[in-house]
Specification:
The complex is a heterodimer of chains A (274) and B (299).
Chain A (H helix, E strand, L loop, with lengths): L7 H11 L6 E4 L5 H20 L6 E4 L3 E2 L16 H4 L5 E2 L16 E4 L3 E3 L4 E2 L2 E2 L7 E2 L6 H4 L5 E5 L8 E2 L13 H7 L7 E5 L3 E6 L4 E7 L5 H6 L18 H11 L12
Parallel strand pairs in A: 1-2, 1-5, 5-10, 6-11, 10-12
Antiparallel strand pairs in A: 2-3, 3-4, 6-7, 8-9, 12-13, 13-14
Chain B lengths: L9 H6 L6 E4 L9 H9 L5 E4 L5 H8 L3 E6 L11 H8 L4 E4 L2 H13 L4 E3 L6 H5 L4 E4 L6 E5 L6 E10 L4 E2 L6 H10 L5 E9 L1 H4 L6 E3 L6 E4 L17 H10 L3 H13 L4 H8 L1 H7 L7
Parallel strand pairs in B: 1-2, 1-8, 2-3, 3-4, 8-10, 10-12
Antiparallel strand pairs in B: 5-7, 6-7, 8-9, 9-11
Helix pairs in contact in B: 3-4
Amino acid sequence: MIASNFTIEELITVTLAKSFKDGEVGFTGLATGGAAALYITGMPLAAMEFARRTHAPNLTILLAGWSINPDFSEIRELPSAEFDSKLQSLPCEAQMQSYPGHYAVRRGDVDFGFGSGVQVDQQGNINSTCVGDYRKPKVRLVGSILLPEHMTCFGREYLMMPHHEARSFVKRVDYVSGVGYPGGNAGREGLGLKSGGPKWIVTPKCIFEFDTQAGKARLRSIHPGVDREELVRSTGFPVSTADVPITEAPTAEEIQILRREVDPHNVLVPHGDH
Amino acid sequence: MVRQSKRASLSDAAQTVKNGHRIALGGFAIYQRPMAFVRELIRQGRRDLVIVGVVNSIESDLLIGAGCVSRIETSYVGLEKFGLARNFRRAVEAGLVDAVDYPELIAWDRFRASQEGLPFWPCTFLGGSGIVEYNADIVAFDCPVTGVKLWAVPPAAPDVVVVHAAIGDEYGNVAFHPRKLLPQTVDITQTRSSDTVIVTVEKIVSQKEMKRRPDLVEIPAFRTTHIVEVPFGAHPTSLLGIYDCDDDAFESYAQSSASTEAFSAYLDRTVHAIPDHDAYLEQVGLKCLLALRNVELPA
């Protein structure tokens, strides 16, 4: 039975969860503030925990890269800092205290991760470094951080974009912080990249997947209630909405699991009915 | 002969840093930064510093805003929950500071290369990234064993490393809490990557006291160049297990850095108009400092 009442964020969370396989290892950083925190931290954590409580009990969560399988039942607010004493005292199975530590990113221990930036393009390149010319930027941003590793060493990457606007969905990113599919799979291979790369681009309006042969993003599904023409207008690269399905709605039971078991304190993916 | 004490004043220790030096400042993002040392460098008017780091924040933004820096090599410069590093942003946009970008793990491994005395660190995954497109210091090569495409990344090679820790003795032995986190590991790696290591600590204790837990000493005395007692030396950043981040002071920093005019006034107030760290702590205020302390029940 389709749930009668769910938010777009809950829809995305359940959709993400179903794409994880049992036994996988998922990595998420800790973003702060509003929509970014929700898309980069809250929804990924809820999706991984949902998967653990349903079809993937052996999935491993790497929170902020160092708190392994944290226990969310105790948290009352999303942690706002990666290394403060609150997060250190969050119950979990293991805490990584050194680098190199528990897991080897470059050997491929991480199956999937979540990343974001100010620009993404049709090849799935992501930019968190600058807007405008790199050598004389209009806006200088934080830098590449761990995105180069996310987009090459992890098995796959979910690009989480909290704002779907033409200025962030561009023809070509101003700087490649994390590399997508230039020239498709063959192109990546030519660059020395044997695996990894973006899997989906997740937005409040839709989910993109990749034609990895052509190296181009295409729509996988459009969220319910989203105007197709408006979606095309807010995407700065060519996109076809023909025959694209509506994102599959969660069942009432799935929403119950999400709200009652995964996120009982309405912290990770807040909904209006709490 | 008696054993040499390495205890120094903040002012004398900061003299070790010369104009043009490559400097690594301990901590990670907004945690455990040697902030008192940074303010002393500004007070002494250091110029053309090259900051080499892993994940940088207020310690670098402050030095950049004070005009002390010509180049920064790192994976991130930002204030985490307090927003963008605005002095860094302005300086790079104006072409006053060169930002040289590295991936986070590689930024860390560059210190491991220096620790091991290696001429470069090999990296497999840089193809197609802006990192190699714009960073001329990274050199592509074919692996002599397998033939696969690799990139040689230069070592961090800091002239000086400065970290802030909790406790040490006058000879320069420095202990770390056993329940450390990743930021403390960056500090430890960095102190092993340079011949000049300055450690500021919350408290210098007797060697007898330190010998109770030799297993916790991560920086042995012979690696330490200077040790300086600087209580609340990381303020406004946190020192794990000892005091929290001063969110109000951090917010005030973030707001002041929104414009060069406001930042100039901030620098005058917190650095130039006061003689030393003691005066800084008086300015912050006893009540505020006491409120930041971690006071917990024993485990």
